[in-house]
Each structure stands twice: as C-alpha cells, then as structure tokens.
Amino acid sequence: MLERVRIVLIGTSHPGNIGGVARAMHNMGLADLALVAPRCDIITQDSISRASGADHLLHSAQVFASIEDAVADCTLAVGASARSRTLPWPMLSPRELADRLPAECQPADSRVALVFGREDSGLTNAELQRCHAHVHIPTNADFSSLNLAAAVQVLAYECRMAWLSQASHEPSASGPAATVQPVTVSQADDDLASHAALENYFEHLERVLITIRFHDPEKPRQLMARLRRLYLRARPEQMEMNILRGILSATEKATQHKQPRE
Amino acid sequence: MLERVRIVLIGTSHPGNIGGVARAMHNMGLADLALVAPRCDIITQDSISRASGADHLLHSAQVFASIEDAVADCTLAVGASARSRTLPWPMLSPRELADRLPAECQPADSRVALVFGREDSGLTNAELQRCHAHVHIPTNADFSSLNLAAAVQVLAYECRMAWLSQASHEPSASGPAATVQPVTVSQADDDLASHAALENYFEHLERVLITIRFHDPEKPRQLMARLRRLYLRARPEQMEMNILRGILSATEKATQHKQPRE
C-alpha cells in the first residue's frame, strides 16, 4: 500500500525542506517523491544533512514541469490546503484520508498523490483544482502555517497508521491489537500472578503489617482493602509477586528477634 | 486540555531542533516547553528561524537540571522510546496516548509530560524508568530515528486531534478515554500522587530494602527498576502513597534496634 503513495512538492524553495521531507517519508515507509518546478537545488549539503540518511530519496526523486505531469498516472490526487477557499472543494481530515487509503490503494495500478505547495504561498487555486480532494491538517488558528516537512510528516504518519491497522486486521499480524491494553504489553516478559498467589500475598502482607505494628485487626479501618485495590490494579506478574513476597520475608527476618514485644 | 500538556526535551544539542519543536508545538496549540540540561544555546539565529514565529515559546521555556525537576508536578509522564528494552514497560501508541489524554487532563491540577531524548542517543534507561509509560511512534524498521521536531509534531498532532474530538463529543468528553484505561477510572475518588511523591517513595523504599538486607546496591540486578515499573503502573493515589510510606516507616521502627547488625 505505502509504495503506491506519492509525495508531490510544488515550487519548493529550500533544499533543507526537501531533505526533511525525504527523512519524514523514509521514516514512515514512503519512497515515491516527485518535485514540480523546484525553486532550489535538490542535492545540497543542507538537503543531505536534513535527510540524515534518507538522501537516496533525493537522488531517486522525479522532477516535473507541472502538477499535471506529476500526477498524470495517479488515481487519486489530494492537495494539502488551508481550509477556507473561494470555491469549496471536497475536504478531508488527515484521518479521513487515511481511512480511504487502503481502498484507494487496492488496485495494482492505483497511485495516490499527496500534493504540497510552496513554503510561502502554498498551492494556487488552479493547482488545488487539479486535485480530487483537499486535506486540511488541523492547526492553531493563530499560527496555522506548518513547516513543509512537518506537514508531510503528519500525513505520512497517518498513511503508516492506516497501513498498520490494515495489517493488524489480517489474522497473523496481531501486533498492534496487543497494544490496546498497555498493561498487557508490559506483561509480555512474564506471566501474570495467579489469583491464589495474590491471596497468599495479601495474607502474608497482613501478618507482616501486624508484626511491625502498622496494622491493628481490631481497628482495621480500610487498610487491607486499599492495599488490595492498589496491587490488584497493578496486575502483578509472577516475578513481581516473588519480589514482594521476598520483601515480606526479609522484613520478618529483620524483626523476628524483637518478638515478643515489650 | 492542551495547556496541561508539557513537552520535555532532554539534552538537546541543536538549537534548530528546539526551534522546530517550538513551531510544531505552537502549530498544534501546545505552549508548555521544558528543557532539561540542554547541550546548546536556546535562543540563536537558527532556533529563532526554525521557530518561524513561535519564538515566544523559546523565551518562555523553563530550563531544568534533571528530568525529576522537569516532571516533578506531573501526574503522568510518558517517554518517547524505541520499542525493545531490556525491561519491558507499559507501551502506548501515539493514538492510545491521545485516547487517554482527555481523562488524564481532567483534574485541574493534572499535568502530562511528554518526554523526548537526545538527538543522538534518546533517553537513558534511568530516564525511561522515571516515566509511567512509553510511547512508540511506528516507523520504518530500517530507518527508525525520527527528527526531534518531527517526533514532537506527531505527538502534538495526536494531542490536538484528541482535543478536537473531545470538543466535538461534548458533553460526553470522557467517553473515549474511559474505555481505554480502567486505571484512570479507579483514581476517581482521590488525587494521583505527584511524580515527586513517587520519587521520594522509591528513595525511601530502597533505603529500607537495604536495611532489611533484601537489596544490595553493589548487586542491584534490576530490583529497583522492577519495583518502579510495578508501582508506576498502578498510578498510586496520594492516600495510597501515604499508606506505603507509613509501612516503610513502621518497618524501620521495628528493625532499628537491630542496627548495626552482627
């Protein structure tokens, strides 16, 4: 899917931004970069340094004279745009675009172009009207102009998320699904303690709390209930349970010679 | 909600990246920037030019000596991290983090810190273990190192999307987050312990574990890291923190007459 997404930059004027775009694309697994009438050199010290290892995308980038040439083979062209336009156009949020992407990229010959305008003036109305739809990245109304590489980063990230969620729907790759519960993920290295192990711990804990005179069964208040809630919430692993039991045993050993108390 | 999200940059070495982060933050409506032991000047021609109009965030940025100081008042600290770590930690995707945010930011005194590491080496294990959870931005396995400003851009974008969807879901704003984290729900009856209170607890705990001879700082293995992970995962309330501190004090009292040991 990601290999069918093309990033199109129109009239870019700073090599560093082209390098930053290349890095953002490669980070998210995109590789098809098209430059329309760039207003600067593409391969410079600045662009290579900002690409930071993704400069092969600078070398493989195709250069076109017009947006028509750059998107000629594309089945969907979406222009990045600020919201209000004289002529209303189908407008997508980055997430709505991502939701459409898997279907749009299904056909073998499909190509989706994400078109970005000039650093200073964006896309012209003529260029926006070459696009099937426009995508607007929500921004602070008082400060809406995103850096070019940042805008590409956000859309490329949404493309990757769409690709990953698509992959996760296939039976094998249940990776992302596992992250639904962060706690579950944190258990990956060990099994959860059994309920019996937890009950044994709570009994042991109460004995020790009485020994160190922190807990008085005659006046329990809600001490054990609160401690239960805390530890049950943490879903301890077996290994963690062993550590907590070990701490209780060490506490008993360190205090034993003081029994019976004065 | 967005005003309760703090971006924490640790050991940043390029002023341009700090400027890029300021621009990304202001674009998405974030304003709280904290710098921990920066390895470069903050206000430079490069940082101001990359901030491109958001340089007021550079001037208002707070500088701290350590991550503990920068997140001391935070109720949730999330560290940006590559996936595999020696000791697995609760791991969120940027979207799962965004889903949690509305509920996390509900209390008036809540503060959420998103912590980013050095350009060259990221966050240390010690720094990652100061965080309740880690967030991993999905990237191309062959090219996973995101530019610092790009990483902040992605998470800031997800924060803004969460804020926008919350606004559109009013009044049932807490809907999405409630489904994500039962932990959050369990905190309803009391305030969360601050990060500083947790750090004080871990210091006290380590002293006591040494006293009862359960812990040998010469051979730490991963004991304190495992205990940190367990208690940070449980998100203790202030009242629970008081109970745990009380247990440590009672343990010290019950063992004191046996010091020094034979």
From TrEMBL, chains A, B:
GO BP term, example: tRNA nucleoside ribose methylation
Protein origin, superkingdom: Bacteria
UniProt cross-references to InterPro entries, sorted A to Z: Alpha/beta_knot_MTases, RNA_MeTrfase_TrmJ/LasT, SpoU_MeTrfase, tRNA_m1G_MTases_N
GO molecular function, one term: tRNA (cytidine(32)-2'-O)-methyltransferase activity
Annotated catalysed reactions: uridine(32) in tRNA + S-adenosyl-L-methionine = 2'-O-methyluridine(32) in tRNA + S-adenosyl-L-homocysteine + H(+); cytidine(32) in tRNA + S-adenosyl-L-methionine = 2'-O-methylcytidine(32) in tRNA + S-adenosyl-L-homocysteine + H(+)
Residues of the tRNA/rRNA methyltransferase SpoU type domain: 5-157
Gene3D superfamilies xrefs: 1.10.8.590, 3.40.1280.10
Places the protein is found: Cytoplasm
Keyword vocabulary terms for this entry: Cytoplasm, Methyltransferase, S-adenosyl-L-methionine, Transferase, tRNA processing
One Pfam family, short name: SpoU_methylase
Function in brief: Catalyzes the formation of 2'O-methylated cytidine (Cm32) or 2'O-methylated uridine (Um32) at position 32 in tRNA.
Record PANTHER family: TRNA (CYTIDINE_URIDINE-2'-O-)-METHYLTRANSFERASE TRMJ, TRNA/RRNA METHYLTRANSFERASE
Family affiliation: Belongs to the class IV-like SAM-binding methyltransferase superfamily. RNA methyltransferase TrmH family.
Record protein name field: tRNA (cytidine/uridine-2'-O-)-methyltransferase TrmJ
Name of the gene this protein is made from: trmJ
